[in-house]
Amino acid sequence: MFSKLAHLKTVAVLRRGVHISVASATSVAAKKTVQGPPSSEHIFEREAKYGAHNYHPLPVALERGKGIYVWDVEGRKYFDFLSAYGAVSQGHCHPKIVNALKTQTDKLTLTSRAFYNNVLGEYEEYITKLFNYQKVLPMNTGVEAGETACKLARRWGYTVKGIQKYKAKIIFAAGNFWGRTLSAISSSTDPTSYDGFGPFMPGFEIIPYNDLPALERALQDSNVAAFMVEPIQGEAGVVVPDPGYLVGVRELCTRHQALFIADEVQTGLSRTGRWLAVDHENVRPDIVLLGKALSGGLYPVSAVLCDDEIMLTIKPGEHGSTYGGNPLGCRVAIAALEVLEEENLAANAEKMGTLLRSELQKLPSDVVATVRGKGLLNAIVIRDTKGRRRCWLVQASVEGVQWGEGRSGPLSPSTRLWACGSSLSGRRPALLFSLKALTPSGEKAHHTGAVFSNAKVPSDRVTQGVVHIGTALPDSWFLGSGEQQESNGSNDAAASHIAKGGPMGLC
Asked: Rounded to whole angstroms, how far apart are CA atoms 419 and 393?
């Protein structure tokens, strides 16, 4: 059955996160003489030559997207269930959001905050009323929202709580991810994020996630201004806390006069089946961070929501952004929020996520340890192979495309997952994901189950983690790209492949 899988076309090598093309010896300079649009191979080579090597992307070059689909430069069509890490929850190039961007582009795009503009106030009124906060501070990226929240928390700690100047502390949970600035990595427990980038931000303390006693102990320190936490940890592997955890966080922060900061950049905006993930426990944080789907993937827009007591501690000139609150971004954000509301995408995410998990839980328990998540933010945990250098080939037979460690997207027709060790796959499809796409998944998972087989893998292709998978609809192309956690010396030469008609993977 799998004999046809032997013919694999290598397109990239991942060497500690560096994407080095090995598919052809043809130089980029020579490629310039080729007529017609660039091939995927040429695009890989050009990026490797001229771009920073801070990502190791999946070996597919996309040029067009619509709804839950994307097309590569060769015209192959794919389901996209990675959704740009959740930024295109409304689907690629949603017509209402695109139209809002085009219309505003012809009028006014940027003024800076040195002037008023006629769109910012409209956006501020809309978003604050929608989420029931008194003020919003518009920024551009999720990490900027996190930085803003930290500044607000410190300023509030000094001016309202009465913490001695420059003694304020902020608590974070282990496994958090909110960006890659120096502040963000100072709160990280992932060596890939922080190793070699010190010294780090003072006043940041880390406690275990989903551990209320640990939080209570940390809050005994009167210098603590805030606790910043993800309602569900996305990049850590879609870690869902115990029921009542967020209620406990709210109660403890209130009792000890510390701000509860909810990082909803990934979990918010209908992703988990509610407008905000904290809504599952009916708690109201002091500060909420939004981003990603706030613009539907068309423009970088983020927001920090809180009430006057916190927001007005920052005065004119003390914080800002040239692009934050620009009329183009504001108009796009209004349209993106309206799409979520008008198309009732939170309810759809709740319904589809429940169905997806119920079907995935029917997969064999000797290999699939856990299926977890809320709405359309989910993960599958693959059981440990106890150090044996083998892989489980899992034919999940469910609808979907690109998925991988800490990443997302439901499974696809004849999707295969290669995984070594204790690993998982997260997925976050566009929230317009429908029964038409999902029902065949459940049927195939129920009727055919999963196919498991041992595979002998060369030691130079062994890496921790799980593979990103994809499949193109017309020709059954499969994509694979390993996500390394921490290099252990033997993982250097992890390879990424593309194969026609067969699974891709590396372990």
From this structure: 7
